[in-house]
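Could you join me in thinking about how sequence relates to backbone shape in a protein? Would you write everything just below, so we can both look at the same thing?
***
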Amino acid sequence: MSAKKRHRRFVTTQVEVEGRVETKIVEMPEHEPSSWGPDASLRIVGQPVPRVDAPDKVTGRAVYTADVHRPGMLFAALVRAPIAAGTITSIDTAGAKEIPGVVDVLVAADVPGRIKAGGVPLLSPRIQYPNQPVAAVCAETRAAAERAAAAVRLAWSAAPFAVTYEDATRDGAPSVRGKAGGAGTEPGAVNLLPTSPEELSRGDIAAGFAAADVIIEREFRTPSALHSAMEPHGAVAEWDGERLTIWESTQAIFRVRDQVAGALGIPRSSVRVIKDFMGGGFGAKSAAGAHTFVAALLARRTGRPVRCIVDREGEQTDTGHRAATRQVVRLGAKRDGTLTAIQAAVEIPLGISGWEASPAAVYHQMYTCPNVHTRETIAYVNTQAMESFRAPGHVEGAFALERAMDVLARELAIDPLELRLRNFAATDEEKARPYSSNELRRCYEQGAARFGWAARQAAPTPHEQPARPSPSTRRGFGLAAQVWPAGGGPPAYAQVRINSDGTIDVLTGTQDLGTGSRTIFAQIAAESLGAKVEHVRVVLGDTERTPYASPSWGSMTTPSVGPAVHMAAEEAKGRLLEAAGELLGCDPRSLTVADSIVRVPDDDRQLTFAEIMKKLGNVMIIGQGSRGPNTTGIGFMSFGVQFAEVEVDLDTLAVRVVRIVAVHDVGRVINPLLASSQLEGGILQGLGFALFEERVLDQATGRPVNSSLHDYKVPTFRDVPAIDAFCVDSVDPTANPLGARGLAEPPIIPTAPAIANAVSDALGVEVNELPLAPWRVLAALSR
């Protein structure tokens, strides 16, 4: 263990989160944990340890928010607006109150003005998007609450609305958020974000195109996509005097705590947020929502616990979305394929609120090019708020950029893989800095070999393929690459306690979204301590019991919290060895540890952790850990490439993905079993984005028309292709002592463009709009 002591001090560091750069003042750790470099001899980390929580999930013992039941609990349901914009002029709750079992009704007059959800005041009569909550009821049963919600009678005055970018930015557009002015005085600027349009440049874009031998320009479109998690948003709220406990399906327990405390005007110490198990979040569960505040307010009014679970229609219409994009991309290149200029103009209808997830970022990061210019124009529209959705911005931007690269490759008669290799970016040209590690070339090489890219036209490789297609089908091949900031960073804290029976508790205030964080941290702690994995229990998801950790987003959890767990475990191990040295009468530095046993080298003497702790009696061994600041001047990115093979049925124009080969570079892989699950999950979500998923709005009313999982299509088992996904053997000790970077978001980024490139290859025509539904394939063939 490294015990490099340093004076405690606060320093400024930068953390990249989902494309945003956040400046933080953080506390320097008192010591650094040992770094697991490429030559580190590890016994547990790197092994496919089964999920430690798998027995709870498969036996039904796992408790999700909808499973939480408190004595005397009531059930809440939301009443939603039927219009896209306007005013609720009256709410008649008399019929609802007559429903047997109804206890209370909540309307705007009962809500403190400071509370907002989805970007608008909670239960506001001013309607800014369809299905906006306007009232809530609670009853003895959920069925009674739902009947009561349906019995609430609304009267309204509809107003003009804008649900597309074009409608929101035209001359005379209605003001979506009720503001005059906006980003400027030009016509149609009333609905633009204050920071819009945003332009970023390096080099001289005009000179870059002047130097080009070939210039291509295309328009690409991506749809609004919905998170569609199996577990909907939900919360259970219970007051004990002035203290509030919330059980919430969330990716950010401390953020929810802070938002609820601020909105209700109570101390943060009076709010406890608990998140045990979660059935998917994908970025949408990163804040307190209407369901959270409704549960808390009704619980305070009734003096009883209240559960509020969002129904499926509410989940699909009022819990966030990936915003649609229109991207006009222009590339300039020499005859040999060398890029001279990259230019993109991006238009985004954000929703009623949200943050600017940048599709333009990937244009500055993916390829080496001296001249890059992007312009992003983002408008508010009368739809649900934008929320982070697995690699927000990069998924949309990568589709357009990687399709444009294939168009350029065809124009130059250069193999698409070769074109990418010729423009490989060895450094971070956007910020003029080196990468901590970059194994993208190896990803290209290993992926192409596994896929059989070089021989694909003459003899497609037989890897898990069905019989060759019939004469009415066409087969195509495509690839796409990705880059994503995934280095993590502070603040994150952890505590490791060795109990009196030798078992170990790891406490940290992060969340396990189903990605396997409990298993990852158990492996890290066991490796650092020299303990058995089965002796380690990870406690997380509780603001009262655990030290702070950041929200679980941006592929940050393992590279942020993992080093804190490592540090805490090493500190606990050091104290355990000191105790063992005293008991064994030897120098603690001479002892070895493995399988929860401390041994004296060249001696038969040994003590188990349990024996040491029993001899210590009530003495506690506790290790504290924290995540140190990132090294300055270095880019911490994850990279990857995916190859796709597709078949297109010329009779139905349906696209079937036959196989995907995915190779990613994320530094050290803590658990290859969990890594493969992350890769496959991201690929399947990317496949849905490519082929099926699209929120459809009725342009006459502004209302969504596919607000159920029956109508909003997501992939099923019938759509799953053969997937060969793996990570290159790599360790990145510059990123953090574990040598690991984030993995959750990178695999979704290149899937859709790889599939679209394969479809274009199969048909010999360009397909530049997602999803690739049969009518869009027909339109491409008809051009």
